[in-house]
Amino acid sequence: MTVEAESERPDPTASPLAHFGNEVRIEREALNMSRRDLGQQAHCSHSLVAKIENGDRVPQLEFAETCDRVFPHARGRFVRMWPLALRYAFPPWFRRYVELEWKATVVSMFHPLLMPGLIQTRKYATAVLKEGRPENLEDLVTARLERQHILQRDQPARLWLVLHERALRNIVGDRTVMREQLTRLLELTERPTHRVQIVPDDGRQHGPMASPFGLLSFREGEDVVHVDGFPRGYVLAEPADVADARDAYDLLKTMAAPLDETAERIVSIVKDCYSP
């Protein structure tokens, strides 16, 4: 290794992403393994391995799991580092929420206009996020989709989702993107641990529907509230705020159509709006 090549390496203390990538490089080089070989093991390109090692891309959980499997001395280190590396991909104001969301046992959400990030497909998330013209679009999409592991792990968080009908009818991307997204939503209604309700669009604006918000509940500790807003969202933990949010959410559930009508409503909207 030349001095020039060494000097081109990023500072591993610059960020959790840089530290994660540096640890990958150290273990890979100790095995005399090429980036292409590691990429084959992780089902990704050698160029993506290079970007992860340089701290330029957010690794997926599958990549961290591959590292723990392939590197003999990892002992689960990469999966343990992964949540911190993932949080670094989010804006600083959102990282605390992501940390709390990862620990939550129940997630209750209301969205009036869009599907929440926790259930978005890749194409839907890309269409939403590219509106802000970010320089790191791929990282933002990856980070958003990786949050969804809380619904897929061995002990998944339970999700109760209330959506206004407009969120299903507002076209994001194109009709193909929406059809795929509503298919994902329909699949969610079939899982016994999750609940989805839809508030019918009666043309009126009701008080609790002013902005998207959610509640996180934990095995230990008090609930917290997350409110989306511009230019940033915020987390509330004061008991009075949590109580107000819980009351508003209960009201939204009563305004929504019954749970057993959800699947039928989704299918009807797909046929009306997004049929090929």
Named CATH architecture of the largest domain: 2-Layer Sandwich
Question: pLDDT average, as an integer?
Answer: 91
Query: Largest beta sheet, briefly?
Result: 6 strands, mixed
What helical percentage do the residues reach?
40-55%
Number of helical regions: 13
Per DSSP, what share of the residues sits in E-state strands of 2 or more residues? 5-15%
What is the oligomer described by this structure?
single chain
- Total discrete domains: 2
- Radius of gyration computed on alpha carbons: 21 Å
Sequence of strands across the biggest β-sheet: 3-2-1-4-5-6
- State the end-to-end CA separation: 56 Å
Please trace the helix and strand order, writing H or E for each element. HHHHHHHEHHEHHEEEEHH
CATH class of the largest domain: Alpha Beta
* Tally of DSSP β-strands: 6
Class computed from helices, strands and strand pairing = alpha/beta
Bulk shape: globular
CATH topology of the largest domain: Endonuclease, Chain A
Outline of this structure?
This protein has helices at residues 3-7, 16-30, 35-42, 46-53, 61-70, 77-87, 92-103, 122-129, 137-146, 165-169, 175-189, 239-255, 262-273, and strands at 106-111, 158-164, 195-199, 213-217, 224-227, 234-236. The chain is α/β, with parallel strands linked by helices. Strands 3-2-1-4-5-6 form a 6-stranded mixed β-sheet, with helices on both faces.
